[in-house]
Amino acid sequence: xxxxEFRSIDRLxxxxxxxxxxxxxxxxxxxxxxxxxxxxxGRVYAVHPKEKTALGLPCFPSILDVxxxxxxxxxxxxxxxxPEIVGECVEKGxxxxxxxxxxxxxxxxxxxxxxxxxxxxxxxxxxGPNCMGIYCPESGLTFRPDLSLQNGSVGFVSQSGGNAIxxxxxxxxxxxxxxxxxxxxxxxxxxxxxxxxxxxxxxxxKIINLYIEGCRDGRRLFKAxxxxxxxxxVVVCKGGRTKAGKRAVISHTxxxxxxxxxxxxxxxQTKVINVSDWTELSNVTLALLNSPLPRGNRVAIVTISGGxxxxxxxxxxxxxxxxxxxxxxxxxxxxxxxxxxxxxxxxPLDLAIDYMNPGVLPLVLDSLAKDDEIDSIxxxxxxxxxxGPRWALPVVEEMRxxxxxxxxxxxxxxxxxxxxxxxxxxxSEREKHRRxxxxxxxxxxxxxxxxxxxxxxxVKRGK
Amino acid sequence: xxxxEFRSIDRLxxxxxxxxxxxxxxxxxxxxxxxxxxxxxGRVYAVHPKEKTALGLPCFPSILDVxxxxxxxxxxxxxxxxPEIVGECVEKGxxxxxxxxxxxxxxxxxxxxxxxxxxxxxxxxxxGPNCMGIYCPESGLTFRPDLSLQNGSVGFVSQSGGNAIxxxxxxxxxxxxxxxxxxxxxxxxxxxxxxxxxxxxxxxxKIINLYIEGCRDGRRLFKAxxxxxxxxxVVVCKGGRTKAGKRAVISHTxxxxxxxxxxxxxxxQTKVINVSDWTELSNVTLALLNSPLPRGNRVAIVTISGGxxxxxxxxxxxxxxxxxxxxxxxxxxxxxxxxxxxxxxxxPLDLAIDYMNPGVLPLVLDSLAKDDEIDSIxxxxxxxxxxGPRWALPVVEEMRxxxxxxxxxxxxxxxxxxxxxxxxxxxSEREKHRRxxxxxxxxxxxxxxxxxxxxxxxVKRGK
Lengths: 463, 463
Fold this sequence. Notes:
The structure is a homodimer. Chain A is α/β, with parallel strands linked by helices.
C-alpha cells in the first residue's frame, strides 16, 4: 500500500459530516445515537423517508436532500433497498458507507452484493454489508452509543460485528483502548487484506487484532499479515477452523473458510500470533500492551499454597513453559529471609505463612526480576482466599501496594509479570483488587491457564 | 471395606467432643474458632502449655488434663513436638487426630512421620501431617471458621489443604455443597484409597472429588477408584503430571507421583472423570450435581451473534462435541416463527434481533429439548452485552425468567442445559444474572470453553 492509498483509507476515519440512513425508532434510534450527545464533533444528519424527526434532528427524505457534503454514511435500510441508497451516496460524493443491513451473500444473495459493488465503483468505499462499520475514538466515530471514546493503540479488524462490539467492551474492562475497530462483515469492497495493510502503516496503531472467517484473496491476506507482523504484533483469531465451524461461517458472512493450509502455513511461517477465541484475543492483547516480550520460556510461579503451586506448575509446563530451578544466588537470598513452616523457596515458590511479612513479597519479586534463570513471573494473588478477609485485610492492602509498585516496573525489568486472581467467595474484594491491578497496567487473569496461554504466545512472538 | 471398617471411619466424622492442641494467638485462634460460636454442637476444649484462656475457654496444659473424653483432636504444635502429642492422644483414647503442622516427609523428615504412625498404632487414626483435616457440615466440623455449614452430597478427598479450602469456597459460590471434605496431606495413616472406599460406601455422598499428588499403595487406589466410579461419579485431579510438577509434589506432600502408567490406565480403563485443575473440578461437579448425563455428544448452541456462533462451534468441536444440523421438524417449527433479519435457525442458532420477541427463546429451547438429533444445549446469555442495559433490561428480565423455568426442568428433558455468560462491561448485571441462574441450579460458566470442557467429560462418563 503506497502513501496515496494509505491516505485515501485514512480519510475514511476522519469524516467532517455523517448521515444515518434509516435510523430505527424500534431500536431507540441506536445508530443515530452513536453520533449525537457530543460523541461525534462534526455535523450529523438523519435520512428517513417517513419519519419527520429523530432525536430532535430533522429527517431528510433522501441523502440527496441533505444541504451539505457528507463523508460517511451508515445505512440501515433493508437489503433490497440498499443498491438505490448506494447509488445516491455515490451521486452525493460520500466517501464511505457502512452497510449495517444483512440479507446479502450470507443468505445466498451474492448478486445483490455484486450489484452494490458495481454501483459504488470504488468511488464510495463500502464496509459490509452485514457489519457494524467504524469505531474510531479519535474522530468520535462509534457503532454503539455506550462505548467510551478513549483513544488507544490497538487496531482491530473484525469480520464479525458482535465480536467487534464485544472486544470493545471487554477492552474497556481490561484497559485496552483502540485506535480503530473496523467491522467489515461480508467484505464486498473493503476487505481484510487492505485493512491490515492500512493498520500496518497507521502510526496510531501499535498492535493489530484480527477476527476473520474467510477471505477472497488469500494470497494478499497472507502477504499483508506477514508484513504487518514484521512491524507490529498481530494477533489473529480464525473463525471456522472445524467442519461445523466452516458451515456456520457460510451462514454468518457468506465467506469460504476452506483454506486450512494457508492458515497453518501462516501461523507457522510468520510472526502472527494465533488465538482460538475472543477471550484469548483480549488476554494476549492486554499483555502485549503492558508487558515486555519474554526472552525465553522459563517462568517463576509465586503462590502461598503448595497444592496450588503443583497445579500451576503442571499447567504452565503443559503450555510449553518451563518451571525450572531458581539460580543458587536467588535461593540463597530468599532462604535467609523465608524460613516459616511450610514455605518453599524452590520454583514454584510457596510463601505459606511468611506472606504475612510485608517485606517478603517485594524481596521475592525483586530477586526473581534479577534472576538470569527466569524469563517471566506469575504471581497468584490468593491471600484473601486463604485466610478470610477479616483477619488478612490490612496485610493484603499493604501487599497489593507493593505488588503494584513492582508490576509497574515490568518494562524496566524486561520480564513479563502477570497476576492471577482465582475465583472465590469474595467477589467484591476480588473485583476491587483486579481493578487496581489492571488500572496499574499489570496483566491480570482469572486462572493460571489463561495466564499460561498468554505467556506461551508471547514466548513464540519473542523468538 | 466391610461394614465394620466403614463404621469405624464414619465415627471419626461424628465426634462428641473435640480439642485443639496449640491454638495460635498470632493466627487469631483460627483453629479454635472453627469449633466455637455455635459451629460445633459438641464439647470443645483448648490445650496450650502457656496460654491461660483462648476465646474465653480455659486452656488445659495437656490433653491428659481435659476432664472429659475427647474424640477428635486438631494438633497445631511444631513438628518435633508432635510425637509426644500423638502419644498423649493415644493414651487419652482420642479416635482421630488431624496434624495441621508441616515439617515431616515433605521436608525429608520421613522418620518423624514413621514415628507418629508407630505411636498411634492404628488406635488413634491420623489425618496428615501437613493438612487441614475434616470439613463435615452435618456434624459441624470445619477447617475454616468462615465456611458455611450447609450440608451437601459431594465428598472431596484432597491431598492439598489449600485446594480443600479453595474448593469449599468455590463450591459455596457455585452452590456445590459437601457431605465431607477430607484434607489428608502427607497421608501417613489415613490415605486416599481408604478414604475413597469410605466415600464410595457413604450414603450421604453422591459424587466423589479427589485431588491427589501421589499414593503409597497404587494398586489399592486403582481398585478403590474403579469400584467407586461404578457406583458414583468420581472426578479426579492428579497433581504432578509433568516433570516440574512431580518435583513440586515432593516439596509439597513428600509423595512420589511417578506412576504415570497407573494414571493413564486409570483414566482409560475406568469411569473416573479426569480433570486438570481445580476450576475444572468444580465446573464438572456443578454439572454432575444439576444436569443429567448426555446421551451423546451432539450439542445445540443458542446465541444472538453470528461471530460468536462460529467461535462457539469451533470450540465445541475442538472438544470432541458435534454441532450438527437440527432435525427437519425443529427447523420447520423454528423457521415459521424466527424470520427477523440476520437470524439463522441452523445450528449454531443465531436469534439476532428476534431475541427481543419474548416468545422466541422458550420456543427454541423447548424445540431443542424435543429434537432427537440433539443431546445437550448451550445457551450464550449475551443479551445485555449486545444492546446495552438501558434499552434491553425489561426484555432481558423476561427472558431470564423463561430461561430459568426451562433450565429447572433439565433432569426431565434428559439433556444438559448450560448457560455461558461471557465477561463484559456490566459486572453487577452479569453477577446478578449468574447468581440467579446458579440459584436455580443451572450450570453457568464464564466461557464456552469451560462449558465445552465440562460437556466433554459428561459425554465420556455417560457412555
